Structure formats: C-alpha cells, structure tokens
C-alpha cells in the first residue's frame, strides 16, 4: 500500500511540473519568522593574540556556513546576536579551537570558558559553564569530548579510501559506527534530555552517511579515476532515509543534504539524463527538470524530498535562472511548506528578479559583446583594448557561485590598488546575455566586462587548460602570461603582492 501511495505522490508531483508553465510569478516580499538568539559570554585567561569569538551557523537552504563575529573586550566579555528558525547546533570558535552547542530561537545563553582549556576537549567539558535559557550543553560538550576519541587517524583513513573497494570501505565505516553507537548508548543511559538523545544518535548516523557518501569522490581522486564509474547507483541507497524536523538540530543533516547530490547524479546516469559524450559529463536536456524528476522519483521521505526540492530551487535562483524557477512554481507551492525553506526562497526570487527587470551597470562599467570576434582572436582583442596595462583577467560564469563570491574581493582589490596602469577584466563564459548583465548590475562592479560566445568559451578552456571556473590570469604590460590559476583569486593577498611587483618593474 505504501509503495502505491508513493507512486501516486510521484505521479501527481511530476504532473505539476509538466503543467507549470507560468511565464511570470507575482510574489510579494514576506516577513521572515525566524527568531533572535543572544549569546553572551566571558573568556577567562584570554590571550592578546586572539580578540574575537566567532559563531558558525550552517544554513540549510543554501548549504553555506554563516559566521557572526564579536570582539572580546579587555575583560574577556563578548556578545553575538543572530536569528534562527529552529533549534540547531552551532560552533563557537576562539582562536584555533571550537566547540558545539545547541541553541533555540529566542534563547539567551551566557557561556564562560577558559582559553587555556579550550584546546583540550576533556578539560573544556569539566570547566565550561552555561547560564540563561534551557540548556543541556554541558552534557553535549562532554559527549563531544568522548566521541572525539573514537576515530581513525587521518593519514590512515585516506589510505583506506585510496586502497579499499566500496564493500571493504563500507565495512570499515560500519565497524567505526558500531563503536560510536556503543559509546553513545552508554552515554545516553547516564541520563540526558530527549533532545540531546536524538542529537547524539543523529551525530553518529549523519557522520557515517556523510563520510560514506564521499568515498567514491575521494577514491576516484586518489586513483585518478572517474567518480561516477566507481560504484553503481545502488551504493547510495543508504541515503534514502526518513527525516523528522527534530533531526535538523544536528547540523550534519545539512551536510547530508549537500552530499545527497551524489546519489542524484548517479541515478541520473542510470536514467540517461547525465552522460559523457566528449570526455565531460553533460546533462541531457534541462538540468533542473532532470534533477527535480529524479528527486521526486527516488526520494521516499516527504521532508527529505521537500528540502532537496527547495535546495534545487535555491540553486536555480542562485544561477539566476528565473524562468526555470517560474516554470516549477506550482511544484514549489505544493511541496515547499516549511517556513525556513519557503520564506527565504520567496524573498530570493523577488530580489533576483529585480535585477533582471532593471539591470543598471555602474557608470564606469564597460560591457562588451564579442560575437564578431573569432575565438582565437578574443584574447588579442582584450590585449588591444588594454594596451600597455597590467591585466588581471577573471574568467567566470553566471551560474558559478564561487565566481560570484570572489567579486566583492575583486572590488576591494580594485579600490585598494586604484591604479590606472592595472586593468580589471572580467571574461564571462558559458553564459546568457541577460543573466550576464543582471549579475554585473547586482554586483555593482566596475571594470571591463566581456561576454564570450560558446565557441570562444570552448577555445578558452583549451587555451588556459581550464577544468572549470573561476580561473584567474595575470598578464604583464606586453601581454605575456605571468601566472594563472585559482590561487590568484582576489580573496587571497597573494595577487596584490604580485601586481605590486609588476607595477615596480
């Protein structure tokens, strides 16, 4: 009966995809219902070397880790405020060490810890103090110290990933999981809250799921093989789990949502939606359509399915694929009901659409189309346009999140250098013109912007021996390539040093 019901749900949801062809969606901004959280504390025996405390919060929809920083005053005091939708663990960091705590919306928690104890998990568990809102965090810290002692040394673990086949490696993780479960059950028997009991069990389970899901990728990397040829799709069947809202208190569930993409990709190969015609894996047809159909077809748990659909729709908007989101709007309405998924998605759609409707680049931003330039002459054209200047070339794409994350750092670097002898050139590949213009407007970044055609994009991959984007190239005033690579990204201080050196020559 359950199987038939699941098939019916899949058919109905798939049908909603097919009939959802709205060309435009009218949505109004929504008020976020997340609640404030206050964390105050005192660092005992603080060192002059470290004067900040940072809280890291894993965000489910985007999969990103948000950070909130507080200065530590001369008395060791700090305070941090942020918002949460639901109870979850966060990471509190001071210096080179960190510890997890569980926090709830509207909580106000005060933490006192000794800087001299934080590097020793057992000593931290004995000395840390909590006050304020309801909390079982003393016990959580104690369990964290206990479970941290059950591990495989990293170098040995990597050796196992390299040498073991999937069955042998799974057996290894099964044995490690059994040891952790035994320790967890013994700890629970000593008496903990229901919330912490569930968190502890999920800590063991998600740790197992996440490392096992990574095996094909790591094994392929160590042995220079193709990740998708290492295991059959059935290898990932362990990921088709049941979830409850209370499970989300363990932030490793968010990592699990990200790792689930590996199961989706493997199933897409089985369904012929992901194939390798010319040495590179390629989607057959519309990638969003294919991924969503795979999620609906093979994910049986409703909450897991909802989170995966919401994550995919978020990525759709993150790539500025407005029309694709609108095409799946009926599915969004039917499937995505949790406020922590629904509200941010609605607001992201509205904000993203705004830049498409009113793309206004900065006054000193130059947009250049290169349709009439032969592929092998594109770089020559860029050199001619910036003759006699040092060129910092940023090769990016509209669908590439890491590319866009570097842009604010590029703006800062441009302002820091403030030198007319340096040209910041942004070369966009594998992208559509409307998305290109919208993102440049959204980022509000100056410089010279070029949009490469498909032929030019393919040529650039070969010319600079690129495996992906972003890619950065530094050229001197004569047009010689001084250096290229991801290590030249603007978020690293290395690039400013290299440009300064060229300016002195």
From TrEMBL:
Keywords: Cytochrome c-type biogenesis, Disulfide bond, Redox-active center. CDD domains: TlpA_like_family. Gene3D superfamilies: Glutaredoxin. Residues 367-496 form the Thioredoxin domain. InterPro entries: Thioredoxin-like_fold, Thioredoxin-like_sf, Thioredoxin_domain, Thioredoxin_ResA/DsbE_sf. It is found in: Cell envelope. Pfam families: Thioredoxin_8 (PF13905). The keyword Cell cycle does not apply. It comes from the Bacteria. One of its GO terms (cellular component) is cell envelope. One of its GO terms (biological process) is cytochrome complex assembly. PANTHER family: THIOL:DISULFIDE INTERCHANGE PROTEIN DSBE (PTHR42852:SF6). This is Redoxin family protein. It comes from Xiashengella succiniciproducens.
